[in-house]
Specification:
Number of strands of chain A: 2
Strand order of the largest sheet of chain A: 1-2
Largest sheet of chain C: 2 strands, antiparallel
Strand order of the largest sheet of chain C: 1-2
Number of domains of chain A: 1
Order of helices and strands of chain A: HHHHHHEHHHHEHHHH
Largest sheet of chain A: 2 strands, antiparallel
Number of strands of chain C: 2
Oligomer: heterotrimer
Radius of gyration of chain C: 18 Å
Structural class of chain A: mainly alpha
Shape of chain C: globular
Number of helices of chain C: 11
Structural class of chain C: mainly alpha
Distance between the termini of chain A: 37 Å
Number of helices of chain A: 14
Chains: A mainly alpha, B alpha/beta, C mainly alpha
Strand content of chain C: under 5%
Chain lengths: 328, 420, 283
């Protein structure tokens, strides 16, 4: 395997392009601009924008592991959907408040991530991919067959979203606020010493080990953090749809999240939102004209893997870096 | 054909018709079009059924010059992907962006339940000719969700249990797909059969998309039963019937199926192995009723195949809506009047050949045929009625209020009457 | 454990072996988890069905199915995978994209109906096997599986190509360093794997039928076989097929609602603790 490149992209350490302060200002400006959207978009389009935010967080959570720890997962859809199930179940069947339901959902998702992590932490590359795929399938199986609790094929429906949140614009702003906070948290996390350790593991596990780092423990915690964020996204999705079914935890969910992350750019974090926007808007446009969305999705995978495995933001960064280097 | 092509050709044909319209109907035709949101699984596991749903709907509209109650029709088709998340997204798009007047369609129970939950909030009328989940017209009724031309799963199997007893069958084994549609169809049969003194020796439940039935067939081969009841749909039905014959069980036990098991969508690709299977349904393409025969013949000419459940249910469904709208002058915007009219309209002249009306729960009352698969014209197999149970409601002979007190059929509750 | 159920398990194992053997060779030698393998199976089945239905000959259909899928495999390897050589994850995700496209194209060409490949007259019906009435065709599949195992074993252990494949599975760099054009060996292996998938589609299409999700189902089974048996090992594929098929068959009898998922448990456990599987060798 030594000749084989185990990661998606050979991510080199980024030169400090922008200072933390600059990044924050740009981030705040973006959030404000996005907050203006509901004033110009139709109800349906606001719904789409909300979905982009939710799946952007899912894709970002996958990026924490893929871009920063070098572990590409095909099981995050299951973690995401577990939270959705718990939220809908606790609110509609047990009768808890939505806020409490959301909390339990996130806890459940993190728990599932912990179980995945315990098993997967010693593997990497293709094996990690297959293992997370298999574990995700087991979660799907449970959701599909444990009918008394999960509703089986039919899923669960509930009135999770209520009150003023039923108004699409208000819901969008609430989700935007949560997403802004989460993005900030993830950003700080990957720049923290812990995050840097993860990057070290991604670049050379053996080196980190010889330096005395407890690699499995770091990966385990990284996975937990990643699962935590996927769980929040999944919980919000329950509010968005008021419905959950096995397709929410299915492999396709993991695959779409992965594609969004890749299209945006592995290791770029915010590229996930770019990827989510691209995929969701593309899907909407394509499905108005033809039923061949699946072919388009497949082609997207092929094209991105051949021409732009570093994603849109990755390509932009590379372009800017070259420009900067030529100036230097 | 895709949606764009359909809209283009329909607007062209409409322009041509507009020129020839007589003066007193011109004003009506110039009203804003009726926008219909048709959702069907065009991709995914049940894609072939979805295709036929679209064909059935388009067939009706074509025969009626793309008009309902004097107004032009704009049919917007969306693929629900055989997936509830996608169907929700498409429902939102149809209602919020395309501003359709009503939704119709969907095939899989979970897509129907998801969309029903959504329209509960928006009040959009949603018609489900195919979705058969019992509870949508029973314990979890939503006012604007109506099963025009559809059926609730257990409705046809109730009389089947009675029929089985009349044949002298005493012991049955059932095999069914393990989800609500299967539970409900089996439950209907099991309840009436056991209440009449019959015995269910064992019930097999298998996951959807079981490719290999040999483990179950092996066990059935060793049983002492009079007949086998199988509830299968789509690819599972095709495989089951084939393998049933392959393993020699066809010669051993008569096979009784649910309606979907012998639907045209299944038997049109089969040979002698499907001959003789009995099933209960409101529609039999081999019926000698002249209206039915005309419909089957015309459908066959157009689509080169005999209509399946998906085709004729959508056709009858949109026909029902059209008849209801005619009664209120095409005012589809007045939701309450519209829904009220649908509930009160009796469907006449449909491919069923008999008139049909809805019960107070939004579910139709039908004459149920006990059909048999035989070789028809051209060597193809079709279902021919052998006996009829008139005016069967979703509650069979039970009092609705008492019936609704028992839980919905599931794996655990099959309505089995214990002996002694 | 009745003879009937045992035969069911063995015949399914034979089919799985035909498909998974190709998969394991590609994974073992090229380190590509070809997620389009299931789609190749489905395409082979559909093409074989069309040829068999038109020509009435199962044999002609077999040649046709194999030829079509080998062509697809060639395009996939030379036309697409060559751009991502050396990047394992990119290769895997690219094949996933191909699987999506092939599956959708198949839906367009053949529609969503379920098809069963017609079998020759001589194989219809059943015969008595130690007191059990069993379909002849399934026994034929079992026999075919055994024959292919022997043929592949002879190929791997008695021919030069086979020796190169085995050496490549052990250490591809060394083989290349010793002057062999490893690219050609890779291509030959990929085409062989594709041929097996396509033939498997025809074979399976006759008793399990072909429908839009058959590709992902057989892919998942193949993954389980290869993970449990060990990548790159023919014996591993055989043992893995037996285990997975028997687990599946008896699972369906004893706990049908979770039968399909019973294979993911062992698969996950093996990936976590012994990723090389039962018979795989360390690189």
């Amino acid at each position: 395997m030594s000749v084989m490149q185990a990661n998606l992209v050979k991510t080199t350490a980024p030169a400090q392009r922008l200072s933390g302060g600059r990044m924050l200002m740009i981030g705040a400006a973006v959030v404000i601009a996005v907050a203006m959207l509901p004033l110009v978009l139709s109800t349906y389009q606001i719904g789409l924008a909300t979905e982009i935010l939710i799946f952007g967080i899912l894709a970002m959570s996958i990026d924490i592991l893929a871009g920063f720890a070098g572990r590409t997962s095909l099981g995050h859809g299951a973690i995401f959907g577990t939270s959705t199930y718990v939220v809908v179940y606790t609110v509609s069947v047990v009768g808890l408040s939505p806020a409490l339901g959301l909390l339990l959902g996130v806890l459940a998702a993190t728990g599932v991530a912990a179980i995945f992590a315990l098993l997967a932490v010693r593997t990497s590359g293709v094996y990690f991919l297959l293992l997370t795929l298999a574990l995700g399938m087991i979660v799907w199986g449970i959701c599909l067959r444990w009918t008394p609790v999960t509703g089986g094929e039919n899923g669960l429906r509930g009135d999770v979203r209520s009150g003023i949140l039923l108004e699409p614009r208000i819901f969008f702003w609430m989700v935007l606020a949560i997403v802004a906070v989460l993005s900030f948290a993830i950003w700080r996390f990957v720049r923290s010493p812990f995050g840097l350790t993860l990057r070290g593991i991604r670049d050379s596990e053996s080196r980190m080990r010889s330096l005395g780092y407890n690699v499995p423990l770091h990966l385990f915690i990284g996975f937990l953090v990643s699962g935590f964020f996927a769980g929040i996204a999944g919980g919000i999705y329950a509010f968005f749809n008021n419905f959950v079914s096995p397709s929410t935890v299915a492999l396709t969910q993991s695959v779409e999240g992965l594609l969004m992350m890749i299209v945006g750019g592995v290791g770029t974090l915010f590229g996930s939102f770019v990827g989510a926007t691209a995929i969701i808007i593309l899907e909407n446009i394509v499905s108005s004209y033809t039923e061949r969305w699946q072919s388009v999705l497949g082609l997207a995978f092929i094209v991105v893997m051949i021409f732009a495995p570093e994603g849109i933001v990755g390509k932009v960064r590379a372009f800017l870096d070259r420009g900067r280097k030529s100036k230097a | 054909m895709d949606r764009r092509a359909f809209l283009q050709t329909s607007s062209l044909s409409l322009a041509a018709i507009g020129v020839g319209l007589s003066p007193w109907s011109r004003s009506a035709a110039q009203g804003a079009p009726i926008k219909i949101g048709l959702m069907a699984p065009l991709t995914g596991v049940v894609a072939s059924g979805g295709r036929e749903m679209v064909e059935g709907t388009q067939f009706f509209l074509e025969q009626n010059k793309n008009q309902i109650a004097g107004r032009k029709v704009e049919l917007i088709i969306e693929d629900d992907g055989s997936n509830p998340d996608v169907s929700l997204q498409k429902a939102r798009r149809l209602v919020e962006q395309s501003n359709v007047h009503f939704l119709i369609g969907d095939l899989l129970a979970n897509t129907g339940l998801a969309v029903s939950n959504y329209v509960k909030g928006t009040g959009t009328p949603y018609f489900i000719p195919i979705i058969a989940v019992d509870d949508l017209t029973q314990r979890q009724r939503i006012k604007n969700v109506i099963r025009v031309a559809g059926y609730s799963a257990s409705a046809f199997t109730h009389p089947l249990g009675d029929w089985a007893l009349k044949q002298g069958y005493k012991r049955f084994v059932t095999i069914s797909q393990d989800y609500s549609f299967g539970h409900e169809q089996c439950g209907g049969f099991v309840q009436t059969f056991t209440e009449g003194g019959g015995e269910i020796v064992q019930q097999f439940w298998h996951p959807l998309n079981t490719s290999d039935f040999s483990p179950y067939l092996g066990q059935i081969a060793d049983m002492k039963v009079d007949a086998v009841f199988a509830m299968e749909t789509g690819a599972d039905a095709t495989r089951f019937i084939r393998q049933y014959a392959d393993f020699g069980l066809k010669r051993k036990f008569p096979l009784i199926g649910a309606m979907n098991t012998t639907d045209q969508a299944v038997i049109r690709t089969l040979g002698a192995e499907c001959e003789g299977i009995i099933s209960p349904a409101h529609f039999a393409e081999g019926s000698d009723n002249p209206v039915t025969q005309k419909f089957v013949k015309e459908y066959n000419e157009k689509y080169k195949k005999m209509p399946s459940l998906y085709g004729f249910s959508m056709y009858s469904g949109i026909m029902w809506i059209a008849q209801a709208l005619e009664k209120i002058g095409g005012k589809v915007e007045d939701r309450d009047a519209f829904i009220d009219s649908v509930m009160k309209t009796e469907l006449t002249n449909s491919p069923l050949g008999k008139s049909v009306k809805l019960d107070s729960y939004g579910n139709p009352i039908y004459d149920v045929y006990i059909r048999k698969v035989v070789k028809g014209p051209g060597g193809k197999f079709w279902n021919v009625p052998t006996e009829t149970y008139p005016s069967v409601s979703q509650f069979w002979k039970y009092d609705p209020e008492t019936y609704l007190k028992q839980p919905t059929y599931s794996r655990d509750f099959q309505g089995i009457k214990k002996k002694g | 454990m009745s003879l009937f159920q045992l035969l069911n398990g063995l015949t399914f194992a034979a089919l799985l072996f035909v498909v998974a053997s190709g998969f394991t060779l590609i994974f073992g030698l090229l380190w590509i988890v070809n997620l389009a393998h299931g789609a190749l199976y489905l395409f082979g089945g559909y093409v074989g069905y069309t040829i068999a239905a038109q020509s009435g000959s199962f044999v002609v259909a077999a040649f046709g199915a194999i030829a079509a899928v080998v062509a697809l495999g060639f395009v996939l390897d030379q036309g697409l995978l060559r751009f991502v050589r050396g990047f394992v994850l990119r290769e895997v995700l690219l094949t996933l994209g191909v699987a999506f496209v092939l599956n959708d194209i198949a839906l367009v060409i053949w529609g969503g109906d379920s098809f069963t490949v017609p079998i020759p007259e001589v194989l219809t019906g059943g015969i008595n096997v130690f007191g059990v009435y069993y379909p002849k065709y399934r026994l034929f599949v079992l026999l075919t599986g055994i024959v292919i195992f022997i043929a592949l074993w002879l190929l791997l252990h008695r021919t030069r190509l086979g020796a190169l494949i085995r050496a490549g599975v052990d250490d591809a760099e060394m083989v290349e360093a010793s002057g062999i054009n490893i690219r050609r060996v890779f291509l030959a292996t990929f085409l062989l794997g594709s041929a097996l998938a396509g033939f498997g589609g025809l074979l399976g299409g006759a008793f399990l039928s072909l429908y839009p999700s058959a590709d992902s189902e057989i892919l998942v089974f193949s993954l389980a076989v290869v993970v449990i048996g060990g990548q790159g090992s023919l014996v591993g594929a055989a043992v893995g097929s037996l285990l997975v098929a028997l687990l599946n068959t008896f699972g369906q009898v004893m706990f049908p609602e979770i039968a399909y998922f019973v294979i993911f448990g062992p698969m996950a456990v093996l990936l976590a603790f012994r990723p090389l599987g039962l018979f795989g060798k360390a690189a």
